[in-house]
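Q: Could you predict the 3D structure of High affinity choline transporter 1?
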Amino acid sequence: MTIHVEGLVAIVLFYVLILFVGIWAAWKNKNSGVGDGLDRSENIMVGGRDIGLFVGGFTMTATWVGGGYINGTAEYVYLPGFGLAWAQAPFGYALSLVLGGLFFAKPMRSRGYVTMLDPFQQLYGKRMGGLLFIPALMGEIFWSAAILSALGATLSVIVDININMSVVISALIAIFYTLVGGLYSVAYTDVVQLFCIFLGLWISVPFALSNPAVSDIGVTAKKTIYQSPWLGKIEPEDNWLWADNFFLLMLGGIPWQVYFQRVLSASSATYAQVLSFLAAFGCLVMAVPSVLIGAIGASTDWNQTSYGSLPPKDKDESDMILPIVLQHLCPPYISFFGLGAVSAAVMSSADSSILSASSMFARNIYQLAFRQSASDREIVWVMRLTIFVFGALATAMALLTGSVYGLWYLSSDLVYVIIFPQLLSVLFVKGTNTYGSVAGYIFGLLLRIGGGEPYLKLPPFIYYPGWVTQEKVHHLTGDVEHFVQQRFPFKSVSMAASFLANVFFSYLTKYLFESGMLSHKYDFLDAVVSKHSKEIMDKATLVSNHDNIILSEMAPVRQVLGASLAGTFTNTEVLSDDGASSPEAFHNED
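A: Sure. Here are the predicted C-alpha cells for High affinity choline transporter 1:
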C-alpha cells in the first residue's frame, strides 16, 4: 500500500485549518445575540441574525458551491455526448439565487422566521408541517451523503489509505465544529472553503493546460480529437428533457433550508436579497476552473500520462475527472496542494446540510409539534443530538449505499415537485388551506414517483409521452443495463399540477364548507370552519403587495426576542388543529 506523504500532509494541513476556523468562530460568537434576548437555540440556527455582507456573501455562495458542484460540473463538461451544454448547475443555481433574492428572501426575512417550515406550520398546521419535513429532510441528508461519497472518491486518488476511515474522520470534524458553533462555524468555514477551492483549482489549471499530453482546448471545443467536442450540443429530441432539468435546478434550488438558513441569518431583509445576488455571481465565477478542468480532461491523450492507456470514461471514472486531472497532469506538489484544498472544502460543505436538517427537526417537529413547553436549553440539546445523528446517518449512507446519488436526485426532485409549489402557495396565493396542501402533496408525489428513477432502478408506472428505452454499457464489466428515459418534462408538469391542485382544492373545500353544501362536522382538519377561519382567509393576502413588508428595506431588522417568538408560535390556538394562522400574524406587534 502506497502512502503519498505530500498528499497526506496537504490534507491534514487544510483539515486543521478548517477545524481551527470552525472552533474560533464558535468561541468568537459564543454570546452573540443572546444578550439581546435571542434564544441560544435560535442563535445556533440563524447566527444571531447579524451575519454581515462579507461572510454572508461567501456562505450564501457556498449554499451550492461545494464538492458535488465542482466535481459534477467538471464531469459533465468531460462526458462525451454531454459537454458544457449539459453542465446546467452553474447557470441553474445562479438563476435560482437571483429568483430567491427577488421574490422569496424579503418576505421570509422580514417576518422573522427561523426555518423554512415556519410559514407552512403557521398556515397549514403542525401535521402538514411534519409531512413537508419529510422531503426536506431527505434532501438534506442525501445531499450530505453524496458530498461525503464524493469526498471518498477524491481521497482515494490522493492517498491509498482506508477510504472508510478517511470519510468517517472527515464527517466527525464537520460534525464537531457544527456542534460547537452552529451557523457561525458553518458560515466562517464557508469562507475558508471557497478560498480553498478557488486557490487550489486556479493554481492547478495552468500546469494542467501546459502538460504535453493536453491538446489546445480551443480546438477540442469544436473538433473531435480524442473524443467528441467538449462544448457539447443539445439534440432536438432532448430539448424538453434539457428544459425540465434546467427548471429543476432553477426553481427547485429555492425551497431548501440550506438557502433560507442563510437568508434568515442576514442582518436585514435587503441584505438577504443582496447576498443572494452576490452568491449568484459567485456561483458562476467558482464554476470556471471546473469547466476548464473538464475541458482539459476531454483534450488529453491519456496514453501519454501516468493514468494509463484507457481514458477515465472507459473505466467508468468520469465522476472523478477533476481529481484525476489534478493528480496526473500537474506536478506532484501542485497536485497535492490542489487536491488537499478541494478535499478540505468538500468536507466542509457537508456541515450546512446537517445543521439545516437538525434545525428543522428541533424547531418544527420536536418543539412546535410535540414539546411546545420545551425550554431553550432542551432545544439546544435536541439540536446537538440530531446534528450527531443526522451526520452519522449521512456518513453511513455514503459508505454503505451504492446509489446515494440516485437517492439525492430523487429527493431533490421531490423538493422541487412538492415543496416549491407549497412555498409559492403559502407566500403568494390568498386563501390556500390544509386540504389544498395535502392534495398538492399527493398529486406531486404520485406524478413524480410514477415517472420512475433510473439511478435507483425504480421502474415507472406512468409512461409519459415520448418515453424511450435506453441502454447503458458498464465498460469494465461489459454489462448492458436497459432503462426507461422520460423525455417529456414530467418533473415540471408534476410541480405545476401540485400547485394547481393546492389552489383548486383549497378554494373548493372553502366553497363547499362555507356554502353549507358540506356539513361543518366534516371539516376534520379544522382548516376552513374553525373559529378563526374567516379571519385567516382575510389575512392571507399576497406578500408581493408592498404594504405587507412592514420593516424598512434598508434598516436592519429588529432582533426578534426568542421568548416572544416562541410564545407567538407555540400558542395553542395557532398550532392546534382547531385553528391556523396566516404568515402575517407573525409580526402583528410590528
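Q: Anything worth pointing out?
A: The first helix runs from residue 5 to 28.
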